[in-house]
Amino acid sequence: MLAFLVVVASPPAAEALTCGNVVGYLSQCVNYAQGKGPLTSACCNGVRSLNSAASTTVDRQTACNCVKKTATGISGINPSLVAGIPGKCHVNVPYPISASTDCTKVK
For residue 73, what are the contacts with CB-CB under 8 A and spacing of at least 6? Predict the structure, then answer.
């Protein structure tokens, strides 16, 4: 997937994170996740921004579900590349990025 990870503007704090926000944050990571390009600073910036925007349990569960759903809809996504993005970007995501992650348990 994880169609993921980039948009620089954070959604207003009063609004809940949406799947559209998540896709925007992570969009610059798709080529890397497909093995078609390097991990870019734009991707890492998106991952950082998403991690900051997902400040509540509901937001983190939304992000988790969206990444899983979006990843299955994009052909050629390499799950191991996707799982490694947060670490390579030096971002501590509080749950594993995996199709097997139970998003209802994300806090």
Answer: 1, 3
* Per-position pLDDT tens, the chain of length 107: 443 433 333 444 557 899 999 999 999 999 999 999 999 999 999 999 999 999 999 999 999 999 999 888 889 999 999 999 999 999 998 888 888 899 999 99
User: pTM for this one?
Assistant: 0.80
The Cβ-side half-sphere exposure at 10, using a 13 Å CA radius, reads 14
- CA dihedral 17→64→86→29, nearest 10 degrees, is -70
- Structure-derived torsion over alpha carbons of residues 59, 61, 1, 41, reported in degrees to the nearest 10: 40
Dihedral of CA atoms 82, 71, 18, 87 in degrees, nearest 10, equals -10
Tokens of 83: 């799982």
Beta bridge partner(s), residue 26: 5, 6
Q: What's at 29, amino acid-wise?
A: C
Q: What are phi and psi of 35, to 5 degrees?
A: 75, 20
